[in-house]
Amino acid sequence: MSKAIDNLNQAQKLAMAIRPKVGGFPYLAEALRLAGVTRNIWSLPSCQSLFLTEDGPVMIQGTPLASGAMDVPPFNQDALIVALRIDQAGESSFPEFLQAAWRAGVVRYDVDFAARTVAYYGCNREEYVESYPAVEIDEPR
Q1: Domain for residue 141, yes or no?
Q2: Cβ neighbours of residue 5 under 8 Å, at least 6 residues apart?
Q3: Which domain holds residue 81?
């Protein structure tokens, strides 16, 4: 296992241990940022997640949301915001959030840990950017 993968795994483990059920994403994001992760780029519906880290890039292949040929849903910012608020309230699982984002026409999203933003993209250059709050956690050891 590379240093980048080990470091990413440790940061994710810490984040899962400390994050609250409601409003937990900023804790995950801060744990990753402190561990040297600069960006996380998700591709939907394939559920590929690329982590750019100070120790090198890491790709994680999740379980795809669908397979085969499919129409891409039109980008629907209102539906995306509803999915975000449901997730932020702790009322959906991460896979449910990904499905809802895909149904809202999101084909990619990009987390910038330094800027504390998440940008959601449709296939026709549509974009919705949301900031998340700074939180303080103990530095990973």
Answers
A1: no
A2: 58
A3: 3-131
Q: What is the CATH number of the domain that holds 46?
A: 3.30.1810.10
CA distance 9 to 116: 21
Collapse the DSSP code of 56 into the 3-class scheme (helix H, G, I; strand E, B; otherwise coil) and give the result. coil
pLDDT tens figures, 59-78: 999 999 999 999 999 999 99
Total number of domains in the chain: 1
How far apart CA 123 and CA 72 sit, in angstroms, is 8
Task: Return the H-helix or E-strand segment holding 47.
Answer: none
Structure tokens at 79: 């539906």
> pTM of the entire structure?
0.92
Note whether residue 136 is domain-resident: no
